[in-house]
Predict the structure.
Amino acid sequence: MSENSTPQANPQETLRKTAEALLRLMGFSQASVTLRQQAPDDLLTVAISMDEAGILIGEAGVNLRAFEHITKLVVRKLLVESPRFIVDVNNYRKEWLEGLREYAHEIAGRVAREQKELEMDPMSSYERRIIHTELTSRPDISTESVGEGFDRRVVVKPFI
């Protein structure tokens, strides 16, 4: 991708092509990139399908988060208004988020049974939003985010 690249008229196409270009630069020339969005208000997902997924994902998803960050930086340089998106490789993040939702319900059940608040591990704003949204239908508990920066976490409390 050259410095004098001109942004595409379609922001989603710019996003897809940027992800493809970054993957090629990293040596993943066989990776396939598509975009998906379940509902109009949902984040776009840059869905990458590839053989060497473990390398791009990294331990506990650290490489994937770094790739997502770099992709966001580049897209923001190319577009006046960048679409909101996440990056997923071989459905790793989708499956991880499903597990996070299940974990949220387990924690909520435990808090409701024991009537004692529990503090979750630090997580990204997107992950915290998933927890808060997932548990809004529970009238017996409440959630709030506490902490600063990378130490920000969700606290699940019994509703008294």
